Structure formats: structure tokens, C-alpha cells
Amino acid sequence: DVKVTQSSRYLVKRTGEKVFLECVQDMDHENMFWYRQDPGLGLRLIYFSYDVKMKEKGDIPEGYSVSREKKERFSLILESASTNQTSMYLCASSLLGTGFYGYTFGSGTRLTVV
Amino acid sequence: AQKVTQAQTEISVVEKEDVTLDCVYETRDTTYYLFWYKQPPSGELVFLIRRNSFDEQNEISGRYSWNFQKSTSSFNFTITASQVVDSAVYFCALSDPTGTASKLTFGTGTRLQVTL
Fold this sequence. Notes:
Distance between the termini of chain A: 36 Å
Number of strands of chain A: 11
Mean pLDDT of chain B: 91
Oligomer: heterodimer
Structural class of chain B: mainly beta
Radius of gyration of chain A: 13 Å
Strand content of chain B: over 45%
Low-confidence stretches of chain B: none
Largest sheet of chain A: 7 strands, mixed
Largest sheet of chain B: 6 strands, mixed
Number of helices of chain B: 0
Distance between the termini of chain B: 41 Å
Mean pLDDT of chain A: 92
Low-confidence stretches of chain A: none
Order of helices and strands of chain B: EEEEEEEEEEEE
């Protein structure tokens, strides 16, 4: 069964810490995405990557950075965690090509910054 | 800009009732894709359906059906004879082909609560 795996289901971090959220996919997908999900706001795109070492900002990149050193792994980095980054973080991947078949999602990481 | 509106924040029904979740979208693209995803309490978004803009046929899959109307920019989702296992947050999404990778623009979601 194809999968997107997020390394942590729940995470609690302190304000000011550097936080790494990891995502791995085993489908050989070119595209990978990080979204955050907040009540009443739906899913908002933070960053995405269409190839190794390539990345683009989404709608809300401030306070975040990403890293994609290998095709299967896409990391989200909170440089200095703040309480307003408490949220559910969802990783997704998709195939590059004609047509668009949507995303495969991971189970999410619920991050609490205290 | 792409936009997806799910005006219903929360819906509560009793088991066996039919329920329709509304989705209205805005796009300037002539070719686009619409999706519905289900997010159960476990958190993972599960793909339900994909529809391209050239295919306006309604779709039925078991108790689920989808009504795509280009004239009103709507892609509504109906669950017939709802069950407790249908309780989840449902997201409608629209493809955004701009830039280097096709992305999805999501609505804010509709939380469906089905009770006995």
C-alpha cells in the first residue's frame, strides 16, 4: 500500500525552539507539499517542492523553511517556534504529469508550541 | 485567484438521513479538477472523488453521489442514508495549475456529525 509517512503524530515544543517535521513518501512522486490546518481556515499551503532541492513558497511561508535533499523526503522547519504555529501539519505528495490525480496525504502532525 | 467556498461549517443529522454538502468554486481556468476528501477523526485525508471540468456527468458510488454543475460553479456531495461512520470533516478542493506544480486550493471544510 502506497504511503506518505509523517514522523510524529503529536509534538510539543517550547517557544523559540527549532522544530523539524519530517515527511517520507514511497510512491516516487515528484511533488510534495506542506499544509497547515486550522479550525475555520481549512488547509493552507506553506511550501511545496516539485523536485529535489527545488522549493516554492505557498500562501503562508512566513516563519517556515523546507528542505528536500532526497526525492522521497520533504522536511518542514520552524526556525523559531512560536505559539501561533500551534496547528495540525499535513504533508502530501502527487505525481507530475498530464492530468492531475490529486494528493496522497500523511496522517498529520499535531504540533503544540508552549 | 482560485477560491473554494464551503458555506456549511457544521451539519448534524440522525442516522439514515440524507445529507448534502455544498461546494462552490471560482476559477478562470477552462481546464480544472475538483476533488472531495474525507478527514475522519484519525486525521488523514482520504480521497473520495476527482472530477475534471469537461465531465459534467453526475457520479454515484454506493451511498455517495456527486452533482457537478458548471453553470453554477458547484460540486455538491450527497450521502444517502447516512451512517455514524460518515462522521468526519469533508473538504472540497480545486486544482490550481499555476506555477511549477499543480496544487490544490481547499475549502474550509464541513464537519458532519451523524448520531444514532
